[in-house]
Amino acid sequence: MKKILLSAAFLIVVLVAILFYRATSVFENNQYQVTESLTPITLNESAAIERFSQALQIPTISYDDSSKLDHSAFQAFHQHLQQSFPLVFEKTELTKFNDYSMVFHLKGQNPQLKPALFMGHMDVVPVDEQTKDQWLQPPFGGKVVDGIIWGRGAIDDKVSVLALMESLEWYLKQNNQPQRDIYFAFGHDEETGGEGAIAIAEYFAEKKTQFEFILDEGGVITDGIIPGTTQPIGLVGVAEKGFVNFRLTVKGEGGHSSQPPAHTAAGILASAIVNVENNPFDARTEFFDLMFDNIGYSMPLSQRLPLANLWLFEPVVLSTLLKSPSSAASARTTTAVTMLQGSTKSNVLPTIATAVVNFRILPGDTVASIQAHLERVIDDPRVTLATELANEASAVSPTDNIGFKLIESSIRRLDDNVLVTPYLVLGATDSRHFQSLSKNIYRFMMVSLNPETLEQFHGLNEQISVQDYLNAIQFYYAMLEQTASGEAQTN
Ligand SMILES: [Zn+2]
What we know:
By secondary structure, the chain is α/β, with parallel strands linked by helices. 38% of the residues lie in helices and 21% in strands.
């Protein structure tokens, strides 16, 4: 007996030793090591802020009903760009798509180098009439108050468009000679499906253009959002989720509700919905693994211990992640039952009952695999399935190439307190239409968000600090200059 106890104690000691050893050794600091900070460009800051403020004053709103499109706003926006950035208009070739989407092409001297593409979108979501008076500054005022620039589009996504244009204007002013071709692509209807971006992607596909990398909106620098880290984290999207709506339909006999069958079409549908909700998709830690590989070393031991020992703690870690809807969304394909319809009158049996279930697809799952899952868990031939609005999840971009390394090094050379990690974008970006044009697609904007400002995305009081806006220009300039030169400083 004593022997058994002793060997059990020995095993526990060994186990604890392994857990601690792994917790202190698995995660290494593989952040880009800054040897030289970026030398900032010395542009006229107040003039740049004024140009941005004016851009925010132009209501380039995307409506679901495209007949509401305000043509004069998009024309004014184009005009504003032309007046603000004369060198860009003079030295690049501009092509327009679907009237208002724009592509600027700066020709490089070395055709051996694949071109790079920087993306953004000019349109913004509408301001909700009911909450309009809760804005502390007018949504299309472009006011600059106490170091904050206010307005719809300040973070989504006029910051990208204007800061990119500022960086290119400055680049051309220095008489730089680009080696690599540089493209800018700005959609005008990203918020309603991105027809402009689709037309642009088709144009490049026809020309058989392949990009070294593509940078679009997406991740940001988060401050106090990722649990367990005190440092700001630069999230660079290497993939984005897909989405699909499945319409579930059950047909019924109809008739008067006074003599109903045991189950009406609505009841059969309800039972199918319960089965769908009770059988969520399998969760996977792959995107968390990617993150922990990069920032795990900076986390406290209490968090590193389970994360470094997933061989033992994976079930615990997964169940913790799945408790919060926001982290669960990065771990699995999500299921949201959103629309329901049965009979239109209380005493009439439904002849048809329908539900719409919205899925956000984790890379690795597909529309077909979701359909197979639904057929299996519903297991009722009376329920038919049809897809609407299907968009597969993106591929996962690698990180061992110039594009990612330049993004990482530029963020860190601007502020080496920021840790950089790849992550999964939960929403959709225009870059999803560019899948065939590059395997290196990244989604990041040089904007810092905390839990409070995160809410302003598509919400109330959208704003960006003056400092963030100027940083964005510095970031894009560093990206542009090094990308165009063809010699990247990536260590
Ligand atoms: Zn956007």
